[in-house]
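Chapter summary example.
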Amino acid sequence: MLHNTRLVILAAGLLAVPALPEGAFAQSPAPTPPPAVRVQLPDAGDDENATELAKKLQNPIGDVSSVPFQSNTNFNSGPHKGTQETLNIQPVIPFHINEDWNVITRTVLPLIWQPSLEPAHTVPFGTGPTTFSAFLTPSKPVNGWLWGIGPVMQLPTISDKSLGSNVWGGGPTGVLVYIKGPWVAGALVNNVWSFGGTSERDGSRYNTFLAQLFANYNFGGGWYVGTAPIITADWLTAGDKAWTLPVGAHVGKVVKIGGKLPVNLLLGAYYNALRPEYGSTWQLRTQMTFTF
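The structure predicted for these 292 residues follows.
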């Protein structure tokens, strides 16, 4: 009986409390954060969107975060005509400055398996020099044209001196791209000078040129064919032996792994019409590119 009386008194007391004004305990609204810039990837499950994603990935300064794993198998390489394998890990990360300008960064870290170079010193596996490029580029093409320009750096990430120079280097890089209908074509060029180094025959000084010319035709459904030879020159070597000039083509397709993750698959072959003294005669190129 006493317990019930206490409950009645407590309920009466609560009913007697005056109602608080609406919002009495409300806090000031938190400031609205600025909208995040986010790249909307096409859904690779749709044929048309798969083609649009393929075109973005064919553009070296495309506004897409991706990680290509490019395998270059070089045949008849070195004095004993062995097979060299280079796996390039090439993350591409875009940064948005504002609505009109982007900075696209590209990094290339090579993992190298090489044949014996005896009597020269050699190691069977290691890392080569890392190349880092940053392109300032407009966010939108004009009449199908898009350009980018910036610095390129070579970092001495070699695990053995037979895999490259242990000296830092740098220089300019630029790219010009044309995108129209099914076509994505253009050229990427750079030149890298070493910051010091020695100049004897096996020295660490270098002065190298690279040009990647590319042209891709997209059929639809994510399928495409094209060519993307990587032309290089060593300006410290005289004559034709300074150049590597590949001729070839590739085929590729954008697919979805697990029904969710868009992946670009590529297969190509190139013959080196010009090559250094111990350069490979031809190359098999395979590539798998993950997008995010």
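To summarize the output: Residues 100 and 140 are 7 Å apart (CA to CA).
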